[in-house]
Design goal:
This protein is of the alpha/beta class. It has seven helices and five strands; from the N terminus they run βαββαβαβαααα.
Length: 163
């Protein structure tokens, strides 16, 4: 039995929506449904969907309010502007399965969807994933670990260690 995929694009760009619909239909011709909405709040009750969010179509405040942990949805942000101040670390930490910048969205969309849906993997560059791991590790280092690293690195005396 084929798994059914429910796609929803949050965008106000109808030309782009048509192109994305064609990509999805080519990928999953018999087992997909495709919806488009320009209102991010309209996806709140959707379950088990693949939600593609067009970065250009929504406000940054709306993005920061998205709760990706509910309703078993997979989130992919597309068309991220190069001047966007939100880093890949933001997208990863907030539960997005992948991020495509504006010059990549259409070119890599099919590969990103296959990766996310068929392999259950994230779609980020190796550098983006490395930066996220480093950021995560830095946030979870205890005070004692930091002290121990400095003690070892700088070969402190017993008196300096206890200061």
């Amino acid at each position: 039995m084929l798994r059914k995929y429910l796609f929803c694009l949050v965008s106000n760009d109808l030309q782009q929506a048509s192109i994305i619909k064609n990509i999805i239909t080519d990928l999953y011709p018999k087992n997909s449904q495709f919806f488009v909405t320009s209102d991010l709040s309209s996806v709140n009750n959707m379950k088990n969907h693949i939600l593609l969010v067009d970065y250009r179509a929504i406000l940054t405040q709306e993005i920061t309010e998205i709760d990706t942990s509910v309703n078993n949805n997979s989130w992919l942000v597309i068309n991220i502007d190069k001047t966007c101040l939100l880093s890949s670390i933001f997208w990863i930490e907030n539960g997005f399965c992948g991020a495509l910048y504006e010059n990549q969205s259409i070119v890599y969309l099919a590969n990103a969807l296959k990766c996310i849906l068929e392999k259950n993997e994230y779609w980020y560059t190796r550098k983006e994933l490395t930066d996220a791991v480093k950021s995560h590790r830095q946030k979870h280092i205890s005070k004692n670990e930091i002290i121990e690293r400095n003690v070892n690195q700088y070969q402190l005396t017993k008196k300096e260690k206890n200061f």
